[in-house]
Design goal:
By secondary structure, this protein is α/β, with parallel strands linked by helices. The protein contains 23 helices and nine strands. It folds into four domains: 91 residues, Orthogonal Bundle (Fumarate Reductase Iron-sulfur Protein, Chain B, domain 2); 47 residues, no CATH class; 124 residues, Glutathione S-transferase Yfyf (Class Pi), Chain A, domain 2, CATH 1.20.1050; 121 residues, 3-Layer(aba) Sandwich (Rossmann fold), CATH 3.40.50. One iron/sulfur cluster binds next to helix 3 and helix 5.
Length: 424
Amino acid sequence: MKHAIPADPSNPWLSHMTEAVQKCVHCGFCLPACPTYVALGQEMDSPRGRIILMKEVLEGTTALEAALPHVDRCLGCLGCETACPSGVPYRDLISPFRQMAMKTRRLGLMAKLRRWSLLQTLPYPGRFRLAAQLGGMARPFRGLMPASMRPMLELLPPSLPAKQNFPEITPAQGPCRARVALLAGCAQQVLAPEINRATLAVLSKNGVEVIIPREQGCCGALAWHVGAGEQARTAARKNLAAFPQDVDAILTNAAGCGSGLHEYPLMLAGTSDEPAAKAFAHRVQDVSQFLANLGLIAPPEVQPMTVAYHDACHLSHAQGVRSAPRELLRAIPGITVVEIPDGEICCGSAGSYNVDQPEIAADLGRRKAEAIRKTGAQWVAAGNIGCLTQIAAHLRSGPQPIRVVHTMEILEMAYAGQADKADR
Ligand code: SF4
Ligand code: SF4
């Protein structure tokens, strides 16, 4: 029997969700591209299975609680969108579904506490630094902690880098070719401030003036992807007000944040801020894409090195940025870029996924580390702090040391004439 999705004026995303559901022709081409289907082999943990489940919940023929375990296992990596020949906008379904589910789902006390503590620490660099420092001290006693809190400890680097403060304006070196505003990121500022340092150095070297707006905040992606819509919308509105209009682009160097900024129109759908969110998202670019379009000032030759480039899902699948970072790395004489087998499959890092689904996250992390080792590369580069942290944690135990760095760090190193540098 055919059912229809009933109208719901309180749901601003219903038309997006309905369109996504209706576009799916159930062909199954997305199944092998889905990390949870690869890991678990269950139809209900595939994109097609989830789309059917969410459709049935919207129609009222399946209970929300029956669908949630499978929906919760979705990483939001959007590998399914890349693989789908029918152009199903899966992102327009999954995140709105989570906002909807959050209003009625029943979470246990530990799950509530976990969610609350993540949403109250990760988006705030000061709080996150304190939590990471406490986590570092607690590491020797992790056996005494609740199992659900341990995965975060495993991901923390052995020592936390010193806090770095960056100027509000970094001038261009030489003639100014462009003026941009940069999103500084939250967890990234704490775990790897060297990524922002490298980004500023590379942009400045390429004649780009960079503004880091002081009033900016978290992009809101973490809250949005776990269904905390009000927190996400507050974050989005703060950034809409904080970022200047008179710049050539709004740049990000963390794929998850960039993808989050591109989702502002969806987050603010049906509100008076939707037009501003659309204009804002139109100006957002990943730093690699911006530099490749601008034309990179040729870096000097470095000692021969092989770099495996890892496609962060939120850069490749969510933003379609694949060739730009590879082009930038190949522009450095001495560097050979190699591809990682099954590179389109997620590494298992996706916001709070390591905490919410630790077994699948660890399985995907191990698979990614093995695939990277197969390349024989001494370095692995990516454009997302979440992937870098996850990959570094899973490579740490391996026999051969492999350096894990952001694409901008390799460029910075090349411009500075350094053959080697510290890594995380
Ligand atoms: S590939 Fe696209 S149309 Fe086919 S089942 Fe997957 S989401 Fe649906
Ligand atoms: S977003 Fe990723 S994990 Fe979720 S259904 Fe699509 S491919 Fe699978």
